[in-house]
Amino acid sequence: MAAQAYVSVTTVLREYASDGSLHGVRYLDPKRCSAAARLCWLVSVAACAATAGLLVSATWRRYGDSPTVTQVADTDYPLHLVPFPAVTVCPPTSAFKGAGEELLARHLGVSEVNSTLGRQLSAIMSAICLIQYPYYHRIQDALDEAGTAVHLFEDLNITSLMLQALPPVDEVFEKCYWQGHRFNCSSLFFLQRTEIGFCYAFNSLTSENRRHW
Hints:
Order of helices and strands: HHEHHHHHEEEE
Structural class: mainly alpha
Number of strands: 5
């Protein structure tokens, strides 16, 4: 009975070694590998295990000689001493289209805009409002709608146009409070260049006038 159980276990081990996906187990199957191959595999595994043991032992000794202990110095650190982060708020639209179209017409020296030119100027302003790094492909439909009028603005300073048509800070913010006191919003928020155009930033070191709190 015992001999039969021993044979059954051996058979199971051989089948597992033959069909198992665990790396290295196939070297246990006498039918697949010779005794020399199994001996080489056993020596290699033993050498790797010994090397790993030496590395773990060295690391443990190094930790025992100079352990690292992390301790919180003060759990009651005042909140007002924590630096306030920079906050950037972008207007719902990067430019007023109506004001922008008037500036474009002024750039052309046109006092009266007909319906065709009006649609072209509107399409150009739509393209300008859609400018966003690095997704410049979004403006292609608006540029196609503008047609040949695009070439009339090859010398246009888009930065100057955006600054003139940008919603002012007082229209973006109704009231501004800081540390319980009310301030003029224009004294707290300054122009900030972003991937989608000009926005208004508070406490930013990279704002246009380089002021910060």
